[in-house]
Structures are given as C-alpha cells and as structure tokens.
Amino acid sequence: MAKKYSYKFWILFWTASAIFLGAWYLYCNTRGESVSSAVAGAMDFLPIKEEQKNEYKALITMGEYILGKDGQEKTLLVLFQNNLEIRPGGGFIGAFGIIKIKDGKITLLETHDLSNFDGRIPDIVEPPYPMKEALRIKSWKLRDSNFSPDFSENAKKAEEFYYMGEGKEKFDAVIGITASTLESILKITGPIEVTGYPGTYNSENALISLEYQVEKAFEEQGIERGERKSIITDLAKEIEKRIFALSVSQKIELASLMIRDLKQKDIQLFFKDENLQNITKTAGWDGNVDKDWKNDYFMISDANLGAFKSDYYVKRALDYTVDFTGEKAIARLKISYNHTAKKKDWMTRDYLTYLRVYVPEGSWFIGGTDFSNPQFGNEFGKKYSGEIIKVPIGTKKTVELTYSLPDTIDAENYMLKIQKQAGISDVPVAVHIIGKNGIRRDFSYTMNEDIVVE
Asked: Which of 122, 137, 142, 360 has the most crowded CB, counting CB atoms within 10 A?
C-alpha cells in the first residue's frame, strides 16, 4: 500500500518544487553557475523523496552542461522515434536531428529524413532476427537501429550507422525522443500552424495529423517524396520560437512535463561524459535495462515489423503470477493485445510484432500459449524468449509464458522489478504473489514508468 503523507508534507513538497523550477528558469535565462550549484545543494535539505532529489539534481547538472556559458560547443544527435510504429527503443526512427549549442544559444538546428540518409549507408550489415524476414530488407540501417530495449546500445548503434552514411559530426550526447513528447510540448505552446502546410497542430491531433502529412497529404500538395518530412524541420523551428517566448509559469509547466516524459522514457539520454551519464542513470533517465537487479524481474519488448502505424490502435495489458508453493518458484506471465481498429486503412493493418520477454538469468521456460516456437538468448544479465505474434484487426490475443525462476529468488526476500518499454504507456499491470503458505497477495498498477513490487 502506498505511503500516505500529511497535508503539511504536500504543501512543503509543492512549494519546494515550485522554488526549484523557478530557480531552474532563472538558471536557463541567466546561465549563472552559482545558481545551479546553490539549487543542487539545497536539494539535500528539502522534504522530498530521494528519487525526486536525484531527478532535480540531474536536471540542473544537464542544464549546466548543455546550456552553460563555458565557450564550448555541444553537439547533440536527436533520434525522432515514432511510437505509432513501436520498436524496442521507442519507435521507428523516421528522422534525426543535429543540434549545436554554444553558451546557451542554439547555433545549428537541422533535421534529416532517413528515407534519404539511409541511401548513403552501404548494404553490408546483416539485420537481426527476424527483421530481414518480416520487413524483407537486405541490410540493417539507421532507421531500424533501435532494436535493443537498452538505449545506450541503440545510441551507439545509431552513431555507427551515421558514420557509415558519411556523417561528419562528433556528438557529445544522443537523445531519443518519441512522438508523444510533441503532445507535451504543444500542451504548453498551444496550437501551431506551419507556413506552407494546411491545418493546425495541437496536443490532441498532432501525431495523427503529422503522420497523415508525411504519408499521404504530401502527394496532394505536390511535394517530392524525398522532401515529405521537411515539415518536421519547419515545425521544430516554430516550436523553438514559441518556447523562447513562453512566460515564466509556462516554462515551469513545460519543465514539469519534460520530467514526466523522462520518467516515462519518452525522452532517453546518453552522454559521452561518464560523470553526466552516471547522474542520468541515477535519475532513471538513461532508458537502459537494469543490469544490477538481482531479484525477480521481467520486461516485455515489442518490435512492430508490420511496416504500418498500427500501435495507435493496439492496447496491452499484463498479468503476472509467481507461485512459491512448490519445490521451485513458478512464474506465469500473460501479455494481452487488443487491436481496436475496425478496418484497414493507410496507417493500420493486422498487427505483427516480434515480442521478446526478458526474465532473470537462470530461469527455465516450461511452456506457453501462442508462444510455441520461441527463440532464446542472453543479454544484459537476463534471459529472453522471443516469438513473432500476429493480432488481426478487431481481435484480441493473450500470449502466456510459464517458466521456473532460479533458486536465488525466494519468497522470504522477494522483490519484483518490471521495466517499462519506451514508447508504450498506460499499460494495466496485475501482479499476484502466492507465498509458501498459499496466501495470495494482489497488486495493480498502470505502467508509465518502471515498477518495483516489494
């Protein structure tokens, strides 16, 4: 049961949060080193959770690194991940951006359509299973590079493909941003019209409207296919103008939404600076698989390989039971898919995903339903099972796995960590723990960030 706090606590908490965000705004506008260090030190004395202190300190440190007035230009690689077509790292990478910042000012902002850039990458890298079979592609390239559930791996792979495509920049950081972040930004900036394009983009319609523009509308407007994603650059520039024109209260609200998106893995960060990356990890913003967790664990990783944006319609739910009444602990995981679309159209078809389930190393697969021919592997100190799953339009499917847990996991010291996949939110999760005495405890969550059950 969640711990309840007094009204006094909440008043203190929200007051402290407002003070912090106000100081963060002051820092962003003055670039003052003394402000950032003072606020970071003050965090230790505020009546807030350690997790929140780490988040605030990380935000300050990152701001000082990126926006600091130190005469050093920082170059960022930004991966735009479309979670309407989910991939293990957050979503299909349709475009990437390069941002250069010096002394707190943006000196370069450009985007590249991967339909064009990937043509410069030679066809020499074998795609991972089952990408080649499902997508019928000859080789692996940047648009499909985020095939790992671990963002650090994806960031390194994206850079590798960037240089294979004759990219010249040297990056200080790689940032993964899912399309859902656009909704957060537009909630603060308000609706935006982009010169030369019809319609208005707001927090309610932006994802579908932008998708329709780059998939269908560009043809009606006489735009060349190779230039169909130019609207992303124009929209980004308009957003930049709006953000710099925000009021103090709006900037505070935007900072709050960005923290939420970082926690939900709609924004993931990889810094070359080792100290900064460690701070990012402590805050939980690195998007990485937890390699240090030693108790019970699972993570599902979906890769939409249907080449359509069907994830807009696919809803998931998880149900996990661990039973300690036998000689070995037995786990049963049910993953339910509900394809809510009514018919095929320009953005959706039957859902085709490569599902991987990561569990503790030493687990032993016993059997499954709609999971009859799995591929097995080990990485990140975990064991995974993978299977191609198809969910026709308008149908539901529940995939079930049964496996034994290693002997190191016992009822007395039991803890469970469920890691969230980037790009997928609002997933109902039910957990059932049956002790050696047969007593069952039930827990329920809505997964918008990693979950720990004690």
From this structure: 142
Claim to verify: residue 26 and residue 149 sit in the same structural domain? no
Q: Note the Cα 122 to chain centre separation in Å.
A: 28
185 touches 86 (CB < 8 A): no
The torsion of the CA quartet 119, 120, 124, 127, rounded to 10 degrees, works out to -50
> How far is residue 274's CA from residue 279's CA, in Å, rounded to a whole number?
9
Q: What kind and span of H or E run contains 443?
A: strand 440-447
Residue 232 in contact with residue 206, Cβ under 8 Å? Answer: no
Average pLDDT of the chain is 87
Between residues 251 and 368, the one the model is more confident about: 368
What's the CATH number where 218 sits?
3.40.630
3-state secondary structure of 99: strand
Burial (0-12, 13-18, 19+ Cβ within 10 Å), 370: middle
| pLDDT, tens only, 419-444 | 999 999 999 999 999 999 999 999 99
The pLDDT value recorded for residue 453 is 97
Question: Which domain-ending residue is among 249, 283, 317?
Answer: 283
Tokens representing 391? 């969910």
Structure confidence at residue 39 (pLDDT): 53
